[in-house]
Amino acid sequence: MSKVLEQFFEITKIPRQSYNEEKIRDYIYEFGKKHNLETYKDNYKNVLIRKKASKGYESYAPIALQAHIDMVCEKALGVDINFKEDGIKYFVDGDIVSTHGRTSLGADDGLGVSTILTILEDHSLKHPEIEAIFTSCEEEDFSGAKNFNQDLLKARHLINLDHCIEDEILLSSAGGITITSTKKLNRIESNELKGFEITISGLIGGHSGEDINKGRGNSNIILFRFLKYLNIPFYINNIIGGSFRLSIPRESSIVIGVKNEDSLLEKKDEFLRLVKREFPSLKNLNINIERKSVDYYYDNEFNQEILDFILLLPADAVILSNSFQSMVDASNNVGEIYIDGDTLFVICDIRANYDSQRSFLRDKIIRLSEICEFDYKVWGSYYSWPYKSESMIRELTLDIYKENYDNPKVKPIHAGLECGYFAAKIKDLDIISIGPNSWDFHSPDEAFSIKSLNKFYKILLEVLEKCKFKK
Asked: Which of 352, 382, 412 is the last residue of a domain?
């Protein structure tokens, strides 16, 4: 077993949900101290570890390696886990490491963290001085990278280890912003209605940036399309759609009351056939309807406004790239819809490669909120990482990749990376992002390839060995 894999398995034991990174922060901090490395931590749960240059590399410019310590915590229905206290149960099936569909795995970005820790403890390697940056809360609000003290860094070349395709080198990433729209609801009682719970399930889900153009569907949108398709009066009791704004929703359910269930049951199979034609690869897509005992509903006057709002939202891939074929420039993930305390919440996460596109989608959703009489809050803004035409670290890495892959790709990514914050803080910073093959981030199907991890690690070591840049 490789040292990187051993290190990854070690950190799977440590809870590291966003905003709950104290234990993994302390583990990394003590790791640095244990190996007699210059180690710092701050009030934002970031850690910086500095490793001296190996013999003969003292005169070369330092290199920064960066990864985030938190993970998205998603679980399948029926799985009992407390992400604040429990580690992740993993399985090794030949080349593949996964959770067998139980929970997210934490390869994002546990593989990056494990790779850096393995490099830090191996004193046989050849490399310039290394500044290892471990940041917190990347999956929520980027507050770790946002508050990291850039004055601590000497490096002007940074390798981010948060990518998931081994033969790709990333050269830029999207920025983003979140909008929470809310509407206060009024309760009513009705003995004339029959309660039913409608559940959309069987979707694949995935990362709301990297997977948004893969035609996986959104259970929230499908659910409200079904309500529109019914074309009958109904009253809402409760909604639970999606579980995390940065994950494409896999499951959504709503409890409604109707006077006549005949149309409800008749149209279920009709609508399911329609949607399965649209998403032929989603073999497990299903609509389930069950009787439900309900004590109250919300006033029917809100239903049309809610339906209009959800179905008029820009959703999934919205603007395609004019520069990179099949790439998304701007998207909106309708990630969460739920009722809490008699208030309906709709959370949308926008990603865009250009600030102007991000503003365009933001203003659309704000205006739609106003028209449908929703209150709204705009939050969670983060920087894009802009493309630079010249990059010494990119050219060196590409040369090495060409020796190892038939057709390595240099491309942007439609996802947010902390590179945006480091690029904004240090104007002359030279950045790339790379990583081994892993997939289905932000979902219980998350997994990675051991062979790819081992190959990637060897290539990264070669990059470090050849990083002989002038100070």
From this structure: 382
In this structure, the answer to whether residues 242 and 298 fall within a common structural domain is yes
For the domain that residue 128 is a member of, what is the CATH number?
A: 3.40.630.10
Residues 123 and 162 placed together within one structural domain of the fold = yes
Domain boundary among 326, 347, 382: 382
CA distance 410 to 393: 12
Give me the domain span that covers residue 70: 3-174+384-465
Query: What does the pLDDT look like over 357-404, one tens digit per residue?
Result: 999 999 999 999 999 999 999 998 888 898 898 999 999 999 999 999
Residue range 183-232, pLDDT digits in tens: 999 998 877 899 999 999 999 998 888 888 888 999 999 999 999 999 98
Residues 119 and 213 in one domain: no
Question: For 244-294, how does the pLDDT look when each residue is reduced to its tens digit (9 = 90+)?
Answer: 898 899 999 999 999 888 888 889 999 999 999 999 999 899 999 999 999
